[in-house]
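Risk register update: the risk that structure generation would not scale has been downgraded. Supporting records follow, first protein first.
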Amino acid sequence: MPKLPRLTAAEAERLLLGAGFAHVRSKGSHRIYQRQGERVVLPFHSGKTRHPKVVKQVREMVGG
């Protein structure tokens, strides 16, 4: 299985917003996005790449 691409928080946020998710709220350094009953929690630490599990979750929600 090929490796997932590395994403920063801003790139992951751009993917979620482009897929129709809306920023619902923030708590600390985590931002919560929601779309028709689906929810994604994105740790938002500037300049750091996301953990592969977070990248996988974002890609599954975006649809690709």
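Supporting record for the second protein:
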Amino acid sequence: MEAKLVVQEGKNKDQEIPLPETIFLIGRDSQCHLRPHCPLVSKLHCAIVPWAGKLRVRDLKSRNGTFLNDQPIHGEVVAIDGDRLRVGSLLFTVRVSVGRSAPQVPPIRERDVKWLLDAPADSGVLSPSLPTVVVDRAEVAVTNGVEDTDAGALSPTAETPAVAEKTSSKSVSAGQHLREYFERRKRPPKASGRKSPPN
């Protein structure tokens, strides 16, 4: 199975984020692979895991929720090709392809995520010590221009543009986890220290 996220909005629109064959974390904390520059995103917001031939998305009890096709994720759901994943103000399209022999996902190449690695490593918004801005689900729907009939009774008000201005960031950067991944791959392998048996 090969899986990736494609950014749908903002200055990074159409950029691809290949997903590893292990867990992929999204959030503001430095251990996360993807760090959205968005105050709506929690320190540990959600996780994406390929398991048993399916791509699973788990909300990590985030303050504002994780949405798949505009529906809030409760616990864990399976994502399929073409699904829309929203995390804070970011919108992604999920791309999943499964071969007949289900080959292993190749390692992430540094050049594939160079745009992430070159993004600012930190900012005030990204600081895990700052609290997550919590908004009503209806405000998120209005802010993101999504019509959501289940969003609640809140209708657009004069305060809505202020919410949009405050929370609509489409910038992302790579977390320390992803940077360390490439650093480890650059290091030469350690010698085993075992001596060859005498002939």
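The longest helix spans residues 176-186. On this basis the risk owner (M.S.) recommends closing the item.
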